[in-house]
Amino acid sequence: MRQITATGQTVDAAVQSALQQLNITEDQAKIEIIDEGKKGILGLFGSKPAIVKVIQNENPAEKLEEYIRKIVKEFDESLQVELTVQNNQITCELSGEKIAMLIGKRGQTLNAIQYLAQLAIHQFADKYYTVIVDAEGYRARRKETLIQLANRLAERAVQTRRSVKIEPMPSYERKIIHTALQNNRKITTDSEGTEPNRYVVIHPAK
């Protein structure tokens, strides 16, 4: 945590001096006024500078990156972690020679890391973030697989006139299924069960 104590003719001047030295803006800092200072007679005699302590707020993305690195290190120290932040979404890209081990069967290990990361960011940040943990394009490949699965099972539901259950999956994967079939008027979809075993059911339209 970076912090600095600065002085100035006024509290505002002292704060601005500290912010410049830390190279941050006021909304990225916590400000403590140590002494408001004193102007003195005619602004000269008996004057006393204002003193403030400015502490840089901890960056939630940096704390999350450190947290994920600790988890990934347990699998393989050579795996790399790279975070990007866009609006309220944090994307974590994992890469390395043994990345398949980190993905796991049908992305189960990767999903578990993402779940833990989503819980962690709630502790690190004072606003809501969505966390996506990806591994060398796995999410895009998984999305295409889910769309194909959704269309295939929708056809089965129509042909057999029976509802089809899909295996339990995380909420964002269920959303892919719902979105892929939302314009198919031959079927309807809903989610049933309780987390973490909630699943999508495809029903033939009545």
TrEMBL record:
<dbReference type="GO" id="GO:0003723">
    <property type="term" value="F:RNA binding"/>
</dbReference>
<dbReference type="InterPro" id="IPR001374">
    <property type="entry name" value="R3H_dom"/>
</dbReference>
<dbReference type="GO" id="GO:0009252">
    <property type="term" value="P:peptidoglycan biosynthetic process"/>
</dbReference>
<dbReference type="InterPro" id="IPR032782">
    <property type="entry name" value="KhpB_N"/>
</dbReference>
<comment type="function">
    <text>A probable RNA chaperone. Forms a complex with KhpA which binds to cellular RNA and controls its expression. Plays a role in peptidoglycan (PG) homeostasis and cell length regulation.</text>
</comment>
<feature type="region of interest" description="Jag_N domain">
    <location>
        <begin position="5"/>
        <end position="55"/>
    </location>
</feature>
<dbReference type="GO" id="GO:0071555">
    <property type="term" value="P:cell wall organization"/>
</dbReference>
<feature type="domain" description="R3H">
    <location>
        <begin position="140"/>
        <end position="206"/>
    </location>
</feature>
<comment type="subunit">
    <text>Forms a complex with KhpA.</text>
</comment>
<keyword id="KW-0143">Chaperone</keyword>
<keyword id="KW-0961">Cell wall biogenesis/degradation</keyword>
<dbReference type="Pfam" id="PF14804">
    <property type="entry name" value="Jag_N"/>
</dbReference>
<dbReference type="InterPro" id="IPR036867">
    <property type="entry name" value="R3H_dom_sf"/>
</dbReference>
<dbReference type="InterPro" id="IPR039247">
    <property type="entry name" value="KhpB"/>
</dbReference>
<dbReference type="InterPro" id="IPR038008">
    <property type="entry name" value="Jag_KH"/>
</dbReference>
<dbReference type="GO" id="GO:0005737">
    <property type="term" value="C:cytoplasm"/>
</dbReference>
<dbReference type="GO" id="GO:0008360">
    <property type="term" value="P:regulation of cell shape"/>
</dbReference>
<dbReference type="Pfam" id="PF13083">
    <property type="entry name" value="KH_KhpA-B"/>
</dbReference>
<dbReference type="Pfam" id="PF01424">
    <property type="entry name" value="R3H"/>
</dbReference>
<dbReference type="InterPro" id="IPR038247">
    <property type="entry name" value="Jag_N_dom_sf"/>
</dbReference>
<keyword id="KW-0133">Cell shape</keyword>
<protein>
    <recommendedName>
        <fullName>RNA-binding protein KhpB</fullName>
    </recommendedName>
</protein>
<dbReference type="InterPro" id="IPR015946">
    <property type="entry name" value="KH_dom-like_a/b"/>
</dbReference>
<keyword id="KW-0694">RNA-binding</keyword>
<keyword id="KW-0963">Cytoplasm</keyword>
<dbReference type="InterPro" id="IPR034079">
    <property type="entry name" value="R3H_KhpB"/>
</dbReference>
<comment type="similarity">
    <text>Belongs to the KhpB RNA-binding protein family.</text>
</comment>
